[in-house]
Amino acid sequence: MAEKGEDLSDAGDVAGALELWKRALAAASPVDEDLRFWLLASIGDAQFQLGDFSSALASEQDALAVGGTGNPFVWLRLGQAAFELGAGQRAADALVSAYMLEGDEIFEDEDPKYRAFLVERGAIS
Fold first, then answer.
1. Rounded CA separation 52/41 (Å)
2. Closest CA to 113 of 58, 29, 88, 25
3. Is 47 in a helix, a strand, or coil?
4. Residues 43-70 as b or e (16 or more Cβ within 10 Å = b)
5. How far apart are CA 39 and CA 25, in angstroms?
6. Consecutive 10-residue runs of the chain (125 residues): their mean pLDDT?
7. Of residues 86, 26, 99, 92, the one with CA closest to residue 53
8. Least C-beta-crowded within 10 Å: which of 12, 13, 94, 117?
């Protein structure tokens, strides 16, 4: 299900991928942290892409809890979701974490408003 969800996402069916990933997460073993992390991060990304920022924030927080603290993309999506929800300090903290792990490259394919937000706050130059 996880791989089929990836295929759907790549084909532009983010909503279809999200549903498959949710089903895969429900079926995943609680001890398979790698799979649970990947699914939670993917679910959060899909939720963000679909504009469900509250759910994206929760999913990315769950991804962090199962071992994603070293993953810059999870921090990026967490920060972007917090930004969209108006949680400025939380957004800044998460976006800075993404930046510290990957540098400017993390913002390369993203809306420039997220990087500009950190510059405006004096968090990066």
1. 14
2. 88
3. helix
4. bbbbbbeeebbebbbbbbbbbbebebee
5. 6
6. 93 97 94 95 98 98 95 98 98 98 98 98 95
7. 86
8. 12
What does the alpha-carbon distance between residue 79 and residue 93 come to, in Å, rounded to a whole number? 7
Residue located via tokens 């699914």:
39
Q: Return the SS3 of 53.
A: helix
Two structure tokens written together for 119: 């510059």
Kindly state the tokens that stand for 10.
């790549």
The encoded tokens of residue 19 equal 């549903």
Q: Characterise 48 by phi-psi region: left (phi > 0), alpha (psi -120 to 50), beta (else).
A: alpha
Q: How far apart are CA 42 and CA 64, in angstroms?
A: 12
pTM, full prediction:
0.96
Q: How far apart are CA 82 and CA 33, in angstroms?
A: 24
Neighbours of 71 (CB within 10 A): 20
